[in-house]
Write a structure and sequence with these properties.
single chain, 242 residues, alpha+beta, Fructose-1,6-Bisphosphatase, Chain A, domain 1, D-Maltodextrin-Binding Protein, domain 2, 8-stranded mixed beta sheet, 5-stranded mixed beta sheet, 7 helices, 29% strand
Length: 242
């Protein structure tokens, strides 16, 4: 584990402690429109400050909330709080997402942390994915799961026709509302499907954690699964609506 991942883990630990210590009413206040297009809550900005303080020495930060921060040849893609609405509603499915791209444009590290449970995933370039919990600080290679009854269809509520097609084809799925975290869990579920505009903040770290799985990235959708056949089946269903 290198210094960047250690610093990222410690920042996640600080943020989780702050959230667990008690929700502050002002965190739900919305401020300006963030660089990613959504309005930033004060909780988003609070989380961003923790990560920027911890990671600025490793490169320029490109945050979903404030855009470019600091200087450096390396670029850190940061979503300090993926699933903000979940967090503000105390629904336990929200995460931080961090990816560092080096001076040559190669993604070197990816970290996604479920801030509700403390489960964290990380990967260094050329190495396997590791996972563990912030309170134990013990990290093990993430095992593949051979069977799952459900997939994840993020933003399914925006795509009723595709949802019906999946249902009619006997695909079971959930839509928990945090794409980076759903991608981190991709090795545990039947599939992960996202339909919509591709934003680097949402996908940089999550897709890096999917290395070794079947990944299909198109202009308007992303599919990840352990099985190539499953990806092909979903592509065929989506083509019926195009």
């Amino acid at each position: 584990m290198n210094a960047f991942i250690e610093a990222s883990i410690e920042a996640n630990r600080q943020l989780k402690i702050a959230i667990d210590s008690g929700f502050k009413r002002e965190w739900s206040d919305k401020t300006t429109q963030g660089a990613g297009g959504d309005r930033s809550s004060k909780l988003d900005l609070f989380a961003e400050k923790i990560f920027t303080d911890a990671l600025l020495s490793f490169g320029m930060i490109d945050s979903e909330e404030s855009g470019l921060i600091g200087q450096g040849d390396a670029r850190i893609i940061l979503d300090p709080l993926d699933g903000t609405s979940n967090a503000l509603s105390s629904f336990p499915y929200y995460a931080s997402s961090i990816a560092r791209i080096n001076e040559e444009g190669i993604l070197e590290e990816a970290i996604v942390c479920n801030l509700a449970t403390g489960e964290l995933f990380f990967k260094e370039a050329g190495k396997r994915r590791y996972s563990g919990f912030l309170d134990s600080n013990e990290w093990q290679e993430s095992p593949e799961v051979n069977f799952s009854e459900i997939g994840i269809f993020e933003k399914a509520y925006e795509h009723p026709k595709e949802s019906i097609l999946l249902h009619q084809a006997s695909f079971k799925f959930r839509s928990p509302g945090a794409i980076a975290l759903s991608l981190a869990y991709a090795y545990r579920v039947d599939f992960v499907l996202f339909i919509g505009a591709f934003r680097l903040y949402d996908f940089a770290a999550g897709l890096a954690l999917c290395e070794g799985l079947e990944v299909c990235v198109e202009e308007d959708y992303v599919i990840v699964s352990r099985e190539k056949k499953r990806v092909q089946e979903i592509v065929a269903l989506l083509s019926l609506e195009r």
